[in-house]
Amino acid sequence: MPGRRSLFVLMALAFGFAFLYLPILAMIVYSFNASRLVTVWDSANSPTLMWYAELFRNAPVLDSARLSFRIATVNATGAVILGTLAAFALERYRRFRGRALFGLLTTAPMVLPEVITGLSLLLLFVALEQAIGWPGGRGATTITIAHITFSMAYVIVVIQARLATVDRSLEEAAMDLGARPWKVFFVITLPLIMPAIASGWVLAFILSWDDLVITSFVSGPSSTTLPQLVFSKVRLGVSPDINALATILVLIVTACVVAAGVYMVRLEKRRARDAQTAFDAAT
Amino acid sequence: MSTDPAARAATTPSPPAPYVRIERLTKRFGDFVAVRQVSLEIARGEIFCLLGGSGCGKTTLLRMLAGFETPTEGSIYIDGVDVTGVPPYERPVNMMFQSYALFPHMTVEQNVAFGLRQDGTPRAEIETRVEEMLSLVKLDGYAKRKPHQLSGGQRQRVALARALVKRPKLLLLDEPLGALDKKLREHTQFELVGLQERLGVTFVIVTHDQEEAMTLASRIGVMRAGEILQVGSPTDIYEYPNSRFVADFIGSVNLVEGKLVEDEPDHVRIDCPQLGGTVYVDHGVSSPPDAQLSVAIRPEKLQLARERPEQPDNVLAGTVTGIAYLGDATRYLVRLSTGFVLRVTMPNVYRREEQFEQGQPVWVHWHASAAVVVMR
Lengths: 283, 376
Known about the structure:
Number of helices of chain B: 9
Distance between the termini of chain A: 43 Å
Strand content of chain A: under 5%
CATH superfamily of one domain in chain A: MetI-like
Largest sheet of chain B: 6 strands, mixed
Order of helices and strands of chain B: HEEEHEEEHHHEHEHEEHHEEEEEEEEEE
Low-confidence stretches of chain B: 1-15
Mean pLDDT of chain B: 88
Strand order of the largest sheet of chain B: 6-7-8-3-9-10
CATH topology of one domain in chain A: MetI-like fold
CATH architecture of one domain in chain A: Orthogonal Bundle
Structural class of chain A: mainly alpha
Order of helices and strands of chain A: HHHHHHHHHHH
Shape of chain A: globular
Mean pLDDT of chain A: 86
Number of strands of chain B: 20
Distance between the termini of chain B: 35 Å
Radius of gyration of chain A: 24 Å
Oligomer: heterodimer
Number of strands of chain A: 0
Largest sheet of chain A: none
CATH superfamily of the largest domain in chain B: P-loop containing nucleotide triphosphate hydrolases
Low-confidence stretches of chain A: none
Shape of chain B: elongated
Radius of gyration of chain B: 25 Å
Helix content of chain B: 10-25%
Helix content of chain A: over 70%
CATH topology of the largest domain in chain B: Rossmann fold
Number of domains of chain B: 2
Structural class of chain B: alpha+beta
């Protein structure tokens, strides 16, 4: 009986993973295809790295990759700073007037259709430009601001959840020992929520990195992000170098996830070992 | 360890002027009154215990002393200075939290040094004082450990060291022994008192555990519903409770209602229908005649006998209906002819002493000084 059940579990696992990862696997395999036609496998010359080589000679691709990276980095940093402040206010000052409304307002961009967010941001930027002459045209700056607007909502949720688990008496103890409120925040609260800030940063980075809809509304002619480039290329017909580009992106993301996983497991193991030491010392 | 306030006062050179003075302190949360018109004076070097059940306002009072809550009305003076509006980081007061609140990302050493760092104490002085403090709480050699590498008892001592290292005028302790197991708690109680006597810091302790209050405190304030009902030494509180609530809250007690039938300066006689007779008490009572009173008698002050004892008063006939052998003592339930059940505790002085048996008719008797009369 246990044997049959474990076979069923294995099957379920295999199908689940196949469903999730076969498309990506197909894309990776085709990135080594020598044929110029994406759907035709050229068995004579494959596998080849020619599309990877071409990618690194392609100036527009490299330019938009750099732009996307820059926007994602600035966005993640900005979203984390604003998101931490908002989460702190929501979590620590429980009794202020309009708290519920404020909480709802900060997380609304998560459920708002992206088209609406994009459109309203576009209208705001145009109106601002006419009123005060800033931002002069649309480009990297407006994209970054737009990205912060929606990714901040996710950051707030992540950091607020972590803040809720931080014992309030830790902050009170620090204050009791003579630390002023701002110092308590930087010396006690911030180090304790650092893991959440780090994951919030990565989340905001990824959200910005692959956003297409909102970006299309607020980007200008001189600024094309990587998703925009991929999308416009695909509309003209899928070319094999896109497969190579996507494979590189998948590899980067996988490396990040694996590194984070290994780090977490190590941390957990060390914690368990320390707790055991303390227990042994006590008995 | 001395629990007698007179003896304690004799060993401290300070005048009896109050060191901490709380004047008509009130705290409201919306419509809820957490602390109501509390006035209290605490002498220098005292261990004062606020004792009460959950929600009685003892923790709110402590948090107002620490500065985490702002009083709605009233004021707090420490060493003659009004600190009512002073924020926690500027008060000469430190607190030991119930959860210990050790900073998990800092070592033991960094935790203890934290308070001194905030004051800009020179590095060399910080080092010596932290070292002194750690050896005082017997944690030398643990300086580089993180809190999660310590046992519960060790964490408690780090928290104590961290709160004491700034040499506060007043140390507040919120359920200081609550998180320790029973054996460790008994041991730590005596250590805590010893430490307090050596350093001479004034302690204010909040606890719901009456045994903890009795062993630690020089004086106890019993709280209920935001008010202090009685302040006194552990002996006062136990032997002379001033109300039904205090009598019932501290220890175990037999409470019966009664009416004054004989009122003399040196003795009173109270008619208790529940007991089916009168109770003779060898001290006077200051209450109007015919007032409804309660008589409180501790179970250990009642005695059982097979034969009717030769005393005119305070003897009742009953039947044993329950027996609980506790080792050091045996607890009996004795049903009187009126149906009222008295709790009686008899110490087991001799081994294999003849015990009373279930259903056995017995005489319950007590000394004229055993009963305490409390207003309703």
